[in-house]
Q: What sequence folds into this?
């Protein structure tokens, strides 16, 4: 049994904030514990579904006490948000940053296909959790507000990257709001992910890149007007 990180690890200050008085070694072990709890939560969420999973089950799967879990996370919803941020959103932001800064000769449609395939092969459980979060948010007002805020932030970043990419390529300005284009791109990615989760192997790895290239070519043709068609 792994050692429970008890309350003696921290104390409260006058304003109620908990102070971390652990040694450097203990802090390092704490980081390891956090990662193990996240990995266990992802396994349990994938196996049972978010709503059916319990904090007790997640702690047991990680080999920690429930108290240890609550040291690192306020509850099941905090585990969910941490997983989405670290396993889905962080890699997405990296791809968006690459799209915004990549030189014109770099084929970003191929990059998108590679990242999509990598995520569905190595982070399949995280993709499944993100899609479950989407379905839960449809009916839960609290989750819906947080999901919408998250999507707005990611969509805004992608929209700015798409505009920057158009400038780098020297193509005409997008003929529709960049935010709308970003919404379309994110919807395509989400839809293909659902197909692949339901029917494994049904989505060719190159399909996303090919689709995005067609969307972009259509936007360019529309921006150039009837003479270009």
A:
């Amino acid at each position: 049994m792994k050692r429970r990180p008890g309350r003696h690890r921290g104390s409260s200050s006058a304003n109620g904030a908990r102070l971390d008085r652990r040694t450097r070694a203990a802090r390092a072990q704490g980081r390891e514990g956090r990662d193990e709890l996240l990995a266990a939560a992802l396994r349990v969420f994938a196996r049972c579904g978010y709503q059916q999973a319990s904090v007790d089950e997640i702690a047991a799967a990680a080999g920690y006490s429930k108290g240890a879990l609550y040291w690192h996370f306020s509850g099941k919803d905090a585990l969910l948000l941490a997983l989405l941020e670290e396993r889905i959103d962080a890699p997405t932001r990296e791809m968006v940053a690459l799209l915004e800064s990549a030189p014109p000769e770099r084929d970003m449609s191929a990059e998108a296909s590679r990242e999509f395939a990598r995520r569905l092969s190595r982070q399949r459980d995280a993709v499944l959790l993100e899609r479950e979060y989407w379905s839960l948010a449809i009916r839960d007002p609290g989750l819906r507000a947080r999901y919408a805020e998250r999507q707005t932030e990611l969509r805004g970043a992608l929209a700015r990257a798409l505009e920057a990419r158009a400038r780098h390529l020297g193509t005409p300005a997008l003929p529709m709001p960049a935010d709308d284009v970003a919404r379309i791109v994110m919807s395509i990615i989400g839809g293909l992910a659902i197909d692949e989760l339901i029917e494994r192997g049904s989505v060719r790895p190159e399909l996303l890149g090919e689709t995005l290239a067609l969307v972009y070519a259509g936007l360019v043709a529309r921006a150039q007007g009837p003479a270009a068609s």
Notes: The longest strand covers residues 10-12. The domain at 76-228 is CATH 1.10.357 (Tetracycline Repressor; domain 2). The beta strands are 10-12, 18-20.
